[in-house]
Amino acid sequence: MQVPPHPTPTGLEPATVPPFAATFPGQVEEVLRPYGSRICLPRRQATSTESITFERLCREVDQLALALLDRGLRRGDRVALLADNRYEWLLTDLALASLGIADVPRGSDTTPTEVRFILDHSGCRFAFVEHDALATELLAAGLPGLEGIAVLHDQSQVAGTTSLGALLAEGATRLATAEGQQRLAAARRAVVPDDLLTIVYTSGTTAEPKGVMLTHHNVLTNMQMVRQVLQFSTADCFLSVLPAWHMYERILDYLALAVGAELVYTDRRRIKEDLQAVRPTVFAAVPRIWEMLHDGVVQQAGKLTGVQGFLLRSALTTSRAVGGRRASPLHHLAHRVLDPLVLKKVRARFGGRLRLCVSGGGSLPRHVDELLLGMGMPLLNGYGLTETSPVASLRRPERNAPGHIGPPLPLTRIEARRADGSPCAIGETGVLWIHGPQVMRGYYKNERRTGEVLRDGWFDSGDLGHRDADGHVWITGRAKDTIVLAGGENVEPEPLETLIKTSQYVEQAVVVGQDQKELG
Length: 520
What we know:
Blueprint: H1 24-32, E1 39-41, E2 52-53, H2 54-70, E3 78-82, H3 87-97, E4 102-106, H4 112-122, E5 126-129, H5 132-141, E6 148-151, E7 162-163, H6 164-175, H7 178-189, E8 196-201, E9 211-215, H8 216-229, E10 237-240, H9 247-258, E11 262-265, H10 271-278, E12 282-285, H11 287-303, H12 306-323, H13 329-348, E13 356-359, H14 366-374, E14 379-384, E15 391-394, E16 413-417, E17 430-435, E18 442-443, H15 447-453, E19 454-455, E20 458-467, E21 473-478, E22 483-484, E23 490-491, H16 493-500
Parallel strand pairs: 3-4, 3-5, 5-6, 6-7, 10-11, 10-12, 12-13, 13-14
Antiparallel strand pairs: 1-2, 8-9, 9-18, 14-15, 16-17, 17-20, 19-20, 20-21, 22-23
């Protein structure tokens, strides 16, 4: 059974992008395994030089899955995955998914209090952890439902735990038998599209974390939607910097594997170095990283003297005008002259091969958006939430103007609504509601919060925005952030905060003024 394929975009070779399966067991068998000896990870983590092939990935997924079956884990169970970006994270995630076991992922830096709540609330029977120290913390927590802990290394020095290396060895022995192969195949045949793939807990900064339930169907259809509007192939190289447990990074990593591309792990300290060393073709990041890269170019322009400094500053000025769609004929002429002289060298600092950049996970400042677009960076701004698996809308390469977040993905509807639930007119701001096959099943064991945001298949994003006449979606703020002044005026703080942060002297800004006469 497969997700019905969408029309192939012009110029995309169908042979390089096989149809996605309906479940992750099928994805491993039908999509990943045929890539064989191709390299999927040129390095197993940010600081490693060891490469991993698709063949090895699929073999070790089989071994780990069979070892987990032998330890009594079954379809429908929940297993914690507390680790950072590395091959072992991906291996464990796919092994669990191939059995219909929902992983409950978080980074290794999650606070002990939050870890205890998440594992207890989700009812995890087993946990994979980054290192021995985290295993020791979990053992000390004394969670009654936790039956086992595995450290994602070849060995563990903590009594009462096992290691990934030991599990792979156990699975390899069992996989060599006909009985083991049959048992694994039967377990995978039982997985259906509506099974839970993952429970991702949102941040608990203001309340207890909520567990977003996403199914195999949610995530695989969202991947298919993204692939319909963006072109990927085996020639691509994805640079991965965001936490792997975030759905934004996770879906891009899945897409890289699904099309046979290379996936290279990096970290925030190495971004600039790896952009030049790896020379990726695809790079997705949060707005803060794009701001950092933008600020680096601007600061260099301010420091350079003489002709070089003058040319770079002139190139950035014209780029901002061109990217902001307000360039005069003189700006366009200067831009054409300065592009091969200056901007080509600036783009080389980003590797020189980027053909697709994506910003998501927050509001992209307009000045950053405009300058990077004007410099020739193929930057697409997207929008979504964990609850939407995660992508809901995305700017298209052929209609890539700054400010908006593009039209909804195929099969997706985004509607701005008034307080009474009626739809807003074109250009009228309201709360954005989202409908599509990527919308979550609900919050795990939290019917009250689920009922607050899900209505007849529509999800209340809590974001304020509107649709324009061209069908593009614009975000203007968060409903819960609206400031009501003493005089009754409603103010959205985000545009003001963004404007203040355009100053090179301001890193963060917070607008306040609830029930006051004026803003501060």
